[in-house]
Amino acid sequence: MTTNTKYIFVTGGVTSSLGKGIIAASLAKLLQSQGYRVTIQKLDPYINVDPGTLNPYEHGECYVTEDGAETDLDLGHYERFLNVPTSQANNVTTGRIYQSVIQKEREGKFLGKTVQVVPHITDEIKRRVQILGKSGDYDIVITEIGGTVGDIESLPYIEAVRQLRWDLGEHNGIVIHLTLVPYLSAAGELKTKPTQHSVKTLMESGVQADILVCRTEHNLPKDLRKKLALFCNVTADSVIQSIDASTIYDVPNLMLKEGLDKIVLKKLALESAKPELKNWNKFLRRHKNPKTEINIGLIGKYVELQDSYKSILESFIHAGAENEVKVNVESVHSEYLNDENAGLMLAHLDGVLVAPGFGERGIEGKICAVKYVRENNIPFLGICLGMQMAVIEFARNVLNLKDANSTEMDPETEHPVIDLMEEQKTIKNKGGTMRLGAWDCALMPGSKVEKIYKNQHISERHRHRYEFNSDYRYQIEEGGMLATGLNPKTGLVEIVEISNHPWFIGVQYHPEYKSTVANPHPLFVGFVKAALKHKKSK
Ligand code: GLN
């Protein structure tokens, strides 16, 4: 088989959480900065068809693409680094692979053959890997394989990589293996043995790593690199160190210094050029040299885990750099918030963001937070469930509709100001059935959001089942909360803002999925600006 697209496979060894996604995204950035069209794909070995049904406690945030795929949070990193949208094809799970193979079997497509892991599952993996390459949109496809080499569930993926390397031919497919070189303080030494074992495990499956990227807390001396090269069967310049960084956005430059891009391009028989990282470095300079700082409260129920609100936190980093301010995000657990302690917990904040979410737990605390910031003129951004809570709070406390609620929380409420969307009413299955992906939105002329976006037509990504109940629109607008963003086709209310508040905006969609280093999201930029202004006015 001949191919124009080159493939890079990233596998992981020794332990999980080494940051394969960041390494893949950083390498992609370096290749993109030399003129190559690059995309990154993640293969996840679990059996869920997608992470949409996974609790954020289990797997962190569920990231949503333009075309409505519910995906692994690493895809967020890919987009934030590359500023190129990903799609359904960029995240594939074992569940999805088996689902398509079993579907084909039921259709009789295997013509009476016994369906097996090799070749049928591995063929389907290989087909999925090559969908992006065959689209003609990319020169290089980086495929990150989730999990750790040696895991039972990773085996079919490693086998597919082994086969693909033969199918693709020399210089068309390479393997980067990410490992850990631990430092034993008692011995005062960096240890190479875990890496040696990990490379050996990979070789037992017939895959030789071409490049080793070694996570480490200390610089790897030359002789240690030589030793790793010798024992792991790679050239000395293929041993790359990935030292702990203070921000993930430093990693592309660290990889550049190590020459990861050069060795990759050499092994793929591609030309290298001088990377164009001017804007990236400008962002980094601003991010690292803020002129001042602000404190933003993030009101949610998954606050113990950084990964649950990953895209929101990254959006604040982009918007902070844009405003040259450090944004300190303070997590506030919504379950512990009430009218009595709201002042104590929130008064010192320069802005409050009420987070997306599902289910009843913690929502009364979110409503208290909205009430406090509305009454105290603190800048407010409500995202998805956060917007819905803002509408409920307004209905209860301004319009005096005391039991106003969302039918998600109280199906019997007398005032369902947030209600299940019509098309959701007949849906029984949970997976992949929400309103997902990009939808157009028309902004009201003269509104705050129109000024923020500097546009009347926007498109944003969604992930929800419930919506603003238009039966209450007149009453709510009369009270002073305006519907300033509408779906142009259905009239669905996507944005609310309060006209006599300095900065109070609730959005049904998720702006955080679209914020990138190259394009910080205007709503986050505007929110940070408003928070800064609020701080100065105190
Ligand atoms: N639970 C709400 C809904 O389904 C909000 C979803 C969200 O915040 N992503 O409409």
Automatic annotation (TrEMBL):
* EC nos: 6.3.4.2
Gene Ontology cellular component?
cytoophidium; cytosol
CTP synthase N-terminal domain spans which residues? Answer: 6-270
Q: What class of enzyme is it?
A: ligase
Matching PROSITE patterns: GATASE_TYPE_1
What Gene Ontology molecular function terms does this protein carry?
Answer: ATP binding; CTP synthase activity; glutaminase activity; identical protein binding; metal ion binding
Q: Which transformation does this protein catalyse, written as a reaction?
A: UTP + L-glutamine + ATP + H2O = CTP + L-glutamate + ADP + phosphate + 2 H(+); L-glutamine + H2O = L-glutamate + NH4(+); UTP + NH4(+) + ATP = CTP + ADP + phosphate + 2 H(+)
Q: Where does Mg(2+) bind?
A: 74, 144
Amino acids binding CTP? 16, 151-153, 191-196, 227
Which residues participate in ATP binding? 17-22, 74, 245
In this chain, the stretch annotated as Amidoligase domain covers 1-270
Any Gene Ontology biological process? pyrimidine nucleobase biosynthetic process
Summarize the activity regulation. Allosterically activated by GTP, when glutamine is the substrate; GTP has no effect on the reaction when ammonia is the substrate. The allosteric effector GTP functions by stabilizing the protein conformation that binds the tetrahedral intermediate(s) formed during glutamine hydrolysis. Inhibited by the product CTP, via allosteric rather than competitive inhibition.
Q: Which residues catalyse the reaction?
A: 384, 510, 512
What are the alphabetically sorted keywords of the record?
A: ATP-binding, Glutamine amidotransferase, Ligase, Magnesium, Metal-binding, Nucleotide-binding, Pyrimidine biosynthesis
Q: Which SUPFAM superfamilies match?
A: Class I glutamine amidotransferase-like, P-loop containing nucleoside triphosphate hydrolases
Pfam families linked to this entry: CTP_synth_N (PF06418), GATase (PF00117)
List other remarks. CTPSs have evolved a hybrid strategy for distinguishing between UTP and CTP. The overlapping regions of the product feedback inhibitory and substrate sites recognize a common feature in both compounds, the triphosphate moiety. To differentiate isosteric substrate and product pyrimidine rings, an additional pocket far from the expected kinase/ligase catalytic site, specifically recognizes the cytosine and ribose portions of the product inhibitor.
The record's function comment reads: Catalyzes the ATP-dependent amination of UTP to CTP with either L-glutamine or ammonia as the source of nitrogen. Regulates intracellular CTP levels through interactions with the four ribonucleotide triphosphates.
Tell me the protein's name: CTP synthase
